[in-house]
Amino acid sequence: MTVIYLFLSALAALGFYLSSAHQRFWPGAHAHAGALRVFTWIVTATATAAAIAALGPWAGVFAALTALMLVLVLLPHLDAWRQLQRENRDVG
What we know:
3 helices; mainly alpha; elongated; single chain
């Protein structure tokens, strides 16, 4: 169950980030932002339910949301690093 809620939390964070206007991973995702946010909220609820089943109510909620927040912090940094690598390659 732990692997399931960690994976779902990471997937939910990716969905939230892709529905953001500032992301550059997938430029076409902004056109589908509404549907992506609905799907992401469902995945977040599923991840929280899986974490509750694995750890109990309080620990499960906090563990699932902490995993979500960790990935939400890492994705903009990864996106910026990827963009910097692309710019350095173009300058050459």
